[in-house]
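Re-running Bifunctional folate synthesis protein to confirm reproducibility after the cluster update. Everything else is unchanged from the original entry.
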Amino acid sequence: MPSRSSSSDTIRLTGLTAIGHHGVFDFEKRDGQPFRVDAELTLDLRAAGRSDELADTVSYVGIAELIEAAITGEPFDLIETLADHLAREVLGSDDRLLAAEITVHKPQAPLTQSFQDVSVTARRSRSDLDPWHAIPALSALRPWEAAQAPAAEVRAVLALGSNLGDSARTLSSAVADLERESGLRVVATSPLARTRPVGGPPWQPDFLNQVIEVATVLSPEALLRLTQQVEHAHHRVRGAENGEVRWGPRTLDIDIISYAEAQVSTPWLQIPHPRAEQRGFVLVPWTWMDPQATLAGVPVTELAERAADASAVQRVEVKP
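Result of re-run:
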């Protein structure tokens, strides 16, 4: 095993504890129990040591938030899976991290013997990351994305949702991230809506949802890639192999609902969104933002009246 160079430094976060619902048994997923996580991050701290600037290091505040969201989020059967998931997510959160060692403790594991702790440790380096963590920069448009770019700005409607972590803060941050991107302007935003989950596992918390309208010169494909980049920046995972549960809890979800009058149908993108017309958690905040809006030629107010979950959508006032 190669020795560490003098440029490989360490940030340690020890004993972060939260209640999670991980375990093989039904009562573990139902009742929950405390989990404790230790994280050791390998990186080069020389720039931070010289500058004394937060921008030159990896914020342990952000790492702590990521770990807490994973502990309290969607449940895994095995703490081995949780440790692997955390190691990959921590590494993927910042390109400056060279390696991550994550130990997950389960001090109340269902054993009949007397014991103090059960733990597993996952050690991962950047070479262990899956391709999802190497999303190319938006500025490097793929040829078909550049060819599909509109000649002038078009209006698009996006729906955002979150039910893990500080969801109000996540949605606000996501909108700000979108607005900072070249080629896109946020034109209007709806108030936040609190909604019960539609589909998915019954144990997940309520969602906060928001609808925004943007003006953009990005093609539909490029806009999709931008929304996925913003999701990834807020620790969204995708795919069953990464532990994602269909219609389950997530730190951030961004859907493209409409893009001007375009109709797009590819294996990875459908516009208008095929289920938007049935989703009160999209339609109701959309009417708050724009009472005159239409979706595929039908007034959104009319669609909202027919949506089964519309009556459960509650407006949320966020204090400045």
